[in-house]
Amino acid sequence: MTTSVSKATETGCASASRVLRLEADALMRLADTLGAPFEMALNCLASVQGRVVVTGMGKSGHIAKKIVATLASTGTPAQFVHPGEASHGDLGMIARNDGVIALSNSGETSELADLIAYTRRFSIPLIAITRNANSTLAEQADILLQLPSAPEACPLGLAPTTSTTMMLALGDALAVALYERRGFSATDFYVFHPGGQLGRQLLLVANIMHKGAELPVAPTGTPMANVILAMTRWRFGCVGILDDKGLLAGIITDGDLRRHMNPELLAAAAETIMTRNPKTIRPGALVAEAIGQMNTLAITTLFVTEDGKPIGIIHIHDCLRTGVA
Is the pLDDT at 173 greater than 80, yes or no? Predict the structure, then answer.
């Protein structure tokens, strides 16, 4: 029994390896064929004022939905339109300032006919992703992104495998190239991914910092007796000291209190005790960066500043509660 199971495992691994190698080879061939048509498609999509509509039937339709999700999450408004439903009213989802990407390995998917005709009638840009350059879809499209001829990984050569992998990868390539061209930032990415682990990884300091009345600050000249009361009130273990322009001149921590403990401490002015030029962080920094900075410096709080003025404070416990660490 053990031997037969082992042989079955070997056979399964060999089959899986064949599939992966066939698809990987097809992707390499696809990468080598990118050129002027890809640049044209990129320019076309970048100029679309409305949405990028992606469509396809069957397995191509599933891939189209994933491409839509990737485009939308990286700053390109997009939506999926089912070609069959399009013929029964959903063509109304496609506006004249939209652009269309149609997926079909054969290029002869009958359900796409009405949608293709609609784009031609209203001069809506149409990008075709297909293997067949002589197909109806390819000939009617404004731009053809042709898939290289490659065998499907299915032993019968029938189930869409290699072809859909290439479509998916090409969609990713378009989405990434578009957002790089637009300068899509981590901050922009967080706007579309506020939930889950990805959202936590992209969480900004500004999203969790304490501000306003919660900001533990005092002006220079404040007696240390009042600074200690303020430190007790806010419970961050520190107080920021502001100069006459409202800039963060220094910081006093509970560690500073222990180091300067003497009979004259309570009457001393804050600036005689404070640590000057304290470490700070910008509001647009990732929480992960703040954690790294606090770990490196062996501190538990950071003031958040803009142009030298404190606008917030972040504590290591705030960071840990987000689940980033």
Answer: yes
Q: Which CATH class is domain 2-184?
A: alpha beta
From residue 175, how far is each of 17, 46, 153, 232 by CA, in Å?
28, 10, 26, 51
Name the pairing type of β-strands 143-146 and 280-281. unpaired
Percent of the chain with pLDDT over 90: 70
Q: What is the pLDDT of residue 235?
A: 86
Beta-ladder partners of 269: 223
Neighbours of 275 (CB within 10 A): 15
pLDDT at 188: 61
Q: What is the DSSP string of 54-103?
A: EEESTHHHHHHHHHHHHHHHTT--EEE--HHHHTTTGGGG--TT-EEEEE
pTM value?
0.63
d(CA 115, CA 168): 21
Residues 302, 281 contacting (CB under 8 angstroms):
yes
> Look-up: residue for tokens 């939209």?
98
Describe the crossing of helices 2-33 and 162-181 by its angle, rounded to 10 degrees: 50
> Helices 162-181 and 59-73, interaxial angle, to 10°?
20
**Distance between CA atoms of residues 51 and 56, nearest Å:** 16
Q: Where does 205-322 sit in CATH, by number?
A: 3.10.580.10
Task: Please tell me the predicted confidence (pLDDT) of residue 272.
Answer: 92
What count of other Cβ atoms lies within 10 Å of the Cβ of residue 14?
A: 10
Is the predicted pLDDT of residue 186 greater than 90, yes or no?
no
Instruction: Select from 322, 39, 33 the least CA-distant residue to 196.
Output: 322
Contact 138, 107 (CB under 8 A): yes
Single-letter code of the amino acid located at 178: L
